[in-house]
Design a protein that fits this description.
This protein is of the alpha/beta class. Helix content is about 55%, strand content about 10%. The protein is built from eleven helices and five strands; from the N terminus they run E-H-E-H-E-H-E-H-E-H-H-H-H-H-H-H. It has helices at about 10-25, 35-45, 60-70, 90-95, 110-125, 130-135, 140-155, 170-180, 185-195, 200-210, 215-225; strands at about 5-10, 30, 50-55, 80-85, 100-105. Strands 2-1-3-4-5 form a five-stranded parallel β-sheet, with helices on both faces. Mean pLDDT is about 85; it is low at about 130-135.
Length: about 230
């Protein structure tokens, strides 16, 4: 299966030319005309590597990279900058922000392919983070959260409900995941129940944390029970 790349560039001509060359080199490529669109695509399908222009309107490459590095899902994702700016200071800023490679325009497309292949090979050589690692970073903490959720469930009927303090719109799939989290199931069990990947479940749980302002499964379940979100 070919590596999945995300290409973000606001110049249509460059975007299409680079996309075509990468596809001819055997990669699967999604394109976005700006960082906001790129971020939205990444919520649906996490790429293996991101190639981004730096000088873009609204959200530039540095801001986009910062957004990626602050999200646990994308912290280690390889990122290549394409830019017309080739000054040493600009390259240093990119590396300090966490970019993996920096290619000034105009560039040789074969060099870009070589950079992409090298970064993907290095990533593949690293010990893989398994779904279980993502779900159970600390066995003791996991056991503690499960125990707390089970305790909450035994008190479910005694918990008084009130409207949520802010508007929360959940997609049908987010609602399904929330319901199963509120049953005390972990990501692997939820993935089996919904016939999807653990990676996708992790993505939905992260979205639920973000939408409810919670930071753990226990907090999420408590919030859901107190505000009638779990069905």
């Amino acid at each position: 299966m070919s590596a999945q790349l995300l290409l973000v560039d606001d110049e249509p001509g460059i975007r299409e030319a680079v996309k075509d060359y990468l596809q001819e080199s055997g990669f699967s490529v999604q394109i976005a005309s700006n960082a906001v669109e790129g971020w939205e695509l990444m919520q649906v399908n996490t790429p293996d590597l991101v190639i981004s222009d730096v000088m873009m309107p609204q959200v530039d490459g540095y801001q986009f990279l910062k957004q990626l590095r602050e999200d646990p899902r994308f912290k280690a994702l390889p990122v290549v900058f394409l830019t017309a700016k080739g000054m040493t200071g600009d390259r240093i800023q990119g590396y300090q922000a966490g970019v993996d490679a920096y290619l000034p325009k105009p560039f040789d497309p074969d060099e870009l392919v070589a950079i992409v292949e090298n970064l993907l090979a290095r990533r593949a050589a690293k010990p893989a983070t398994t779904a279980d690692d993502l779900e159970t970073p600390d066995i003791a903490e996991l056991a503690n959260q499960i125990a707390q959720i089970k305790a909450l469930l035994t008190q479910r009927n005694a918990i008084s409900q009130s409207p949520a303090p802010f508007k929360i719109d959940l997609t049908p799939r987010e609602q399904s995941v929330l319901n199963l989290v509120a049953e005390g199931l972990m990501n692997k069990e939820i993935a089996r129940r919904l016939e999807t990947s653990v990676r996708n479940v992790e993505k939905y749980v992260s979205r639920l944390f973000s939408k409810t302002g919670t930071n753990s499964r226990t907090e999420l379940v408590r919030f859901a029970l107190e505000h009638g979100l779990a069905k």
